[in-house]
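Handout, page 2. Input:
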Amino acid sequence: MPQTDWQPTDPPPTDGRDRLVVYVPGGRQLVARFDVTQTAWVADGVGPLRPGPTHYQELPTPPEPEPEPKAKPAPEAKAAPEAKPAGKPAPEAPDPYADTKKK
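Output:
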């Protein structure tokens, strides 16, 4: 488990990992790493921190990602119901014009 106590930045850690740094007095905190090529603490998007911070602290291990929820299996397709045999055909409706037709 990483050490969680504040450590002075002199001597700085040289492994290039991000750490929580702080300026004392004042207490401003940000995440930075010590860059051995620049011999300075560097924060992403900020560049070298000058004057450098006074103390640092190890960051905790990030949490494990949540497992993806398992997809529910697709429901089985149901077969279409079989067509029922047709019953008797409907009786023909009487022709309303039957008496007007020529015979």
